[in-house]
Amino acid sequence: MATAPCSSVLPAPQLGYPADPRAREAQDNSSASSQSCSMASCPSVPSRHGAVKAEDTFKTSPFHLDLWFYFTLQNWVLDFGRPIAMIILPLEWFPLNKPSAGDYFHMAYNVITPFLLLKLIERSPKTLPRSMVYVSIITFVMGASIHLVGDSVNHRLIFSGYQHHLSVRENPIIRNLKPETLIDSFELLYYYDEYLGHSMWYIPFFLILFIYFTGCFTPVAEQSRMPVAAVLLMGPSSLYYWYLVTEGQIFILYIFTFFAMMALVMHQKRKGLVLDSNGLFLFYSFIIALLLIAGWVGWLWNDKILRKKYPGVIYIPEPWAFYTLHMSNLHAARESF
């Protein structure tokens, strides 16, 4: 037998509505009881875009040692280690017209890193904006893939005498190319590697970290402390962020992300909320990395050759430019003895 929808209300004169006052009262009470029971039994339907629930504010999560450890380890091995693997491993194993070992490292990085970022978002005690997270992940993978191609060719040029501390047109193996339009092609390749690829790679990367950071607050002051494992892991994590900012030339993006994190901490403190262990780990890693960047810049402040390649107010030399300028000559001198 069909039932009328909850929104319909029958007036008194309608068919089936008893005329006796006592019968009407009993029927009204029965209808109200059944409606409340049906509403109680129906589960709440979440928003399509992951609206924040009321109880999320009071949830906290323990320190994600497994995810932060894997995240730091794969950053060092697959990102920092890929150019080292390309240089150390014999050239006969990876010919110049084939992908290098570093390229395979980069491919693994492009798969593992977004997976770990998604796992971090899943473990957040708050329901975060999923649509923004998904778009950021897609853009991240696309930017990292663009960088994979440009960076592969640029690092393979080292075996032909390419010097990273010089601009494209100033490199000895590039400036004498004929026709000169080939130089424009190499500059386009450099643009895809150092500008477009880095922008589409690092902007969503830091955006995802900041979105995760917004859920790392708790009203319980006792939970605002890091375990010993987090303190030990903070060193290599900070050092990697130093490498990421200097080699990727993304200091402006990094400092804006840090300022946004600091402003959020101050805003939440007024509400009586403090960072949990995961938020402290990320925030302190950014602070230590900022100190390492300042030390790096101060150490190379008077380097005239690097100053020429990095003109302007923001002077942050790339580690690999420093290597090709100073360390490669030192290694060549040692091999000659």
Outline the secondary-structure elements.
Layout lengths: L20 H21 L23 H24 L12 H22 L7 H27 L15 H4 L5 H33 L3 E2 L9 H21 L2 H20 L3 E2 L1 H23 L4 H6 L9 H18 L1
Antiparallel strand pairs: 1-2
Helix pairs in contact: 2-3, 2-7, 3-4, 4-6, 6-8, 7-9, 8-9
Number of distinct beta strands:
2
Domains (count): 1
Overall mean pLDDT: 82
Query: Helix- and strand-based class?
Result: mainly alpha
Q: Uncertain regions: pLDDT < 50 for 5+ in a row?
A: 1-17, 32-57, 330-337
The Cα radius of gyration reads 29 Å
Reported for the largest beta sheet, the result is:
2 strands, antiparallel
Task: Please trace the helix and strand order, writing H or E for each element.
Answer: HHHHHHEHHEHHH
The helix fraction, in percent, is: 55-70%
Straight-line distance between termini:
98 Å
- Anisotropy-based shape: elongated
Number of helices: 11
The share of residues in extended strands comes to under 5%
Task: Give an overview of the whole structure.
By secondary structure, the chain is mainly alpha-helical. It has one domain. It is 65% helix and 1% strand. The protein has eleven helices and two strands. The protein has a two-stranded antiparallel sheet with strand order 1-2. α3 packs antiparallel against α4, α6 packs parallel to α8 and α8 runs antiparallel to α9. The chain is elongated and about 65 Å long. It starts with 20 loop residues before the first helix and ends with a helix. The N terminus and C terminus are likely disordered.
